[in-house]
Fold these 2 entries.
Entry 1:
Amino acid sequence: MADRPLRPPRIELGPGLEVPRVLTGLWQVADMERDGQPLDPDAAGKALGEYVDAGFDGFDMADHYGSAEILVGRYLARARPGQATACTKWCPLPGPMTADVVREGVQQRLERLGLPRIDLLQFHWWQYRHPGYVDAMLELDRLRREGRIGHLGVTNFDTDHLRLLIKHGIPVVANQVAFSLLDRRPAGRMTEVCRAHGVKLLAYGVLAGGFLSDRWVDRPEPTDIPDWSKSKYKRFIDTVGGWAVVQRILAAAKTVAIKHGVSVANVAARWVLEQDAVGTVIIGARLGEREHRGDNLALFGFALDDADNARLTEAQSLLRAIPGDCGDEYRKPPFLTASGDLSHHLAGLPRVFQARAGITRPERSTVDSGSRWEPIAGYARAVRAGHRILVSGTTATHGESIMVCPGDAEGQTVYVLDKIGAAIEALGGELEDVVRTRIYFRDAKCAEAVARVHGRYFGAVRPANTLVEIGGLVGGYEVEIEAEAEVGP
């Protein structure tokens, strides 16, 4: 039998930011308030205090989790300074991330929480083709240096763009991503990048909305989904192979749970906690309705041995991998979200560039990206003539002159391909329409890293491609890329 410790162990995410290894997630507040009636602040405050008293004093919330920030703020106003840690998220729509926009977003979080400083501010971004996330993170870092934010994190960032931010000098300490026995995407490149740069993963979805628990062992597939969280994770289940495959994992977890005298939920959460780079797991709470503090403590009274891991690995062998990288479920099919298909939402986001008719040849369309060289040299970022789109040699230039990821060819390639995608999109095409790319890089030692990024963007498209090592690029860039696309009628 597992011995339950008196309090959960803690981990330092960054200097001065110490949290329990189980954060209390408050996303269910939005579900509990979906009838438009806010939770009673006194009852919610009492429930929050009970979590703090048990050592679960780290709360994870967001700007869209109903009144969660307000409820935590009211609790903190009555609590001792430093009694609890506030981790919240800012999830703006893509658009110009001016200093005023960013500061207003942070100020709203501070006012709702009633705090002079946010312990951990996590940033979400919908569409990487829009480079506003770089501006936002640079401004958030200024606010960190001013003392308005303790530490910076991101949420649902994929590996390439997390790495890009780090290489650009943003001090990211955490990335919040889905990670569970069903969803093992973070165990690959994401873990490698986090280990290399000291970033911790804050894992949510570890219980798949409650499906990875004793309640669902040997139970028939549900037809009536009671809440948003279960709606979301039922889509995960369908994607990885369906109910029968998940029952196989539940059976293995149940065997391990009986061996250690714990719950299936404990086994599922412990498996995630033992993965490299995972700092904490986030387990949701329905304040005033259900609490799992005692069960969560059992997480730290046992460890999985080789036989346990072998049993779970064998049960996972029939799982289909969830497509893409971390966070892709919010950005591309299959959309695995509580709201389902987000294509209408993404289609409504503003485009980065605007096409305009050519000056001397009105039948052509052109796009400018704002580089200071475009008007000087008399060229466009991209031109559409008939069904052809041609994109000029593009470097990792942010705005007029900021070099992204100085000295890092891999990060620059990510930024460049996003920029090329935005230019092609503005002219009515997609990256899937690209038929040729040419890549010029300064150092052949970077060729494989650059090629691998190209493969992650074009692996299913397979355009013609040329890699060229050259003596140097204007401006000291590591890589420059041009592209051609053919758009169907």
Entry 2:
Amino acid sequence: MGNKTIWAGEQEMNQEVQRIGRKNGLELAVPSRERKGIGDVILSAESSMLIAGVRIEALRLYPDDRGYFCELARLGAAGIAERMLPGGGASVQISATQTYPQTIKAIHYHFEQTDLWMPISGMFQVILCDLRNSSATFGKVNTLYVGNLRPWAILIPPGVGHGYKIVGNDPGVLVYITNRFYNPEDEGRLPYDHPGIAYDWETQHK
């Protein structure tokens, strides 16, 4: 505590930060926010409001009269999935999770692990928050509505806090690739309602 920094979010301000820790060349911290919000809502894969290092690609989905086929990733081909290739002793893990409607899973972060999220059913309200103290977008919050109605793959680099809420009436299924095997010592967690992030999980009545 006691360090002053600039939050690169919707408005710039001097504020205290809560240090989380330092590892793998990253120093992570949580800025102080004065009011709740959902940050910048990302409506395009090329949005200039994306947190630094976050990348998005539309999933390849092929519907026909039988249903649909969805290509999730081509490891070894150009694209955001290339970040998941083994290198330097890293290993790839592919996992899936189902989450019931209105459930919140948040907020996680890693010092070393990169995540590639691919929501394949249901609708997700995804929160991303830049916890990297040296990042140009430190403190910035992104909200992405992804899933059935917006089939995006999301690359989440180390130091970017992440989580989601399932919106709507259907469970959500998330397939995700990580560029190393799960290591509980690399995963950190913040409360979903951490006051420094001040994320508004309520339905946005606009």
